[in-house]
Amino acid sequence: MSENPSPPAVEDDLPEQMKVRRGKRDALLAEGVKPYPLGVKRTVTLAKLREQYADLAEGASTGVEESVVGRVIFVRNTGKLCFATLREGDGTELQLMLSQAKVGEDALADWKRLVDIGDVVAATGEVITSRRGELSVMAESWSMAAKALRPLPVAHKPLSDENRVRQRYVDLIMRPEARDMARNRPAMIRSLREVMHQREYIEVETPMLQVLHGGAAARPFVTHHNALDIDLYLRIAPELYLKRCVVGGLERVFEINRNFRNEGVDSSHSPEFAMLEAYEAYGDYHTIAELTTSLVQTAAMDVFGSTVVQHADGTELDLGGQWRRVGLFEAISEAVGETVTIDTPYQTLVSYAEKTDLEVDPVWGPGKLAEELFEHLVTDSLVQPTFVFDYPEETSPLTGAHRDKPGLTEKWDLYIRGVEMGTGYSELVDPVVQRERFVQQARLAARGDDEAMPLDEDFLRAMEYGMPPMGGLGLGIDRLLMALTGLGIRETILFPLVKPEA
């Protein structure tokens, strides 16, 4: 596609700064210079120069010529000598010097006339240090690599939190914290993956488009496949497919996956999020708790160098050692000041809710109400890593019944800083009981629970071939980063879903 001057109709509606910048773009074109060339010469990164010449003395000349590229974030034009600060993608900065004696009168005049803060420029010249000891490139030539038509935010007027999310590309330019997160996230995922590989788990892929939504209690996104003329669901969890793998003999499997749940958006919830989900034949929720501790502590060490992590607000969180374990009903009992068990009457639970201003949904059974009481009264206090054990059967339809406590399942949730990080199960492997649980879920759906799971006949058929005892894990990637950094979920996801601008 050819590069053309800006049409007048577009120019009329632009802010003055953008009109000026478009005028400079047009000037480049008129002079036969491409403001957006398909390539520029770069022989070395700014970071490599910084590393290579870290000890260069003041006023030194290396005699080495290099070609560098970077975004202009500062300019100072003073007569026959101009200065600029270039920044590359990782945030490394380097001074660029342009002397009339080196680049020539015309090239220096073009620099002053055409270059703005935010432009990406290329320059070739000798690596030196200035008289003040600043490592620099003394340019012998320069060229435009990408003309910025919009000005960058200024220091005294940064982007709002909302616009930082909407315009993450600007956020990455302006804030080192945003760039750090963009690098820490894949570093953490590499760490998680490496732990799983070391433990001989097989990484697999499961469908994102599913005929039935299952594996979690959540409202799904629905779409339609035109060729097959059927409704499909975006995956809410990979659980039922990963368990099929275990039936087939893949005894340790995991997936780092994207899940989609049609739910609210807040500081810890996103409709699209990342999970590590894993299943281990002949394990249980105790072995999975040990695995989870290892995953989190190793990730902290690999990414931040310590199991004591410092948050954005300056506070510290110690993820090391053995983590606290507490029973769900034990925690509720402590919060209400009375003994609460799985056998506590429903109306008694309702009375606790009324006393603590928890609004009760009529579709909740006693197990669901107990969980809601726990979330309402306890979770905010769980700052240090805490495993909350043994949940009601009613709310855990895919979990094995507790070996010693009737009415409960062998399930834990992990909380850090008051937020659920993940969950671990001793999995339900009896196909007859699983069918009964699915039927119970169907009844809940009929009563209006749009998060209830449907009956999945193919999954039951897989179970009927013999599903070995196993432990299962679901660990939130985004939320783990929240725990490690102290930031909200919209900071840990590079491009979170946001409502379209008006």
Describe the structure.
This protein is of the alpha+beta class and 502 residues long. The protein folds into two domains: 131 residues, Beta Barrel (OB fold (Dihydrolipoamide Acetyltransferase, E2P)); 260 residues, BirA Bifunctional Protein, domain 2, CATH 3.30.930. 35% of the residues lie in helices and 25% in strands. It has 17 helices and 18 strands. It is elongated and about 85 Å long. It starts with 7 loop residues before the first helix and ends in a 10-residue tail after the last helix. The mean pLDDT is 93.
Low-confidence segments, given as residue ranges, are none
Distance between the termini: 30 Å
- Main beta-sheet strand count, sense and barrel state: 8 strands, mixed
Radius of gyration using CA atoms only: 29 Å
Mean pLDDT: 93
Q: Give me the secondary-structure category.
A: alpha+beta
Number of domains: 2
Overall geometry comes to elongated
User: For the largest beta sheet, what order do the strands appear in spatially?
Assistant: 6-10-11-18-17-16-15-14
Number of strands: 18
Fraction of residues in β-strands: 25-35%
What would CATH call the class of the largest domain? Alpha Beta
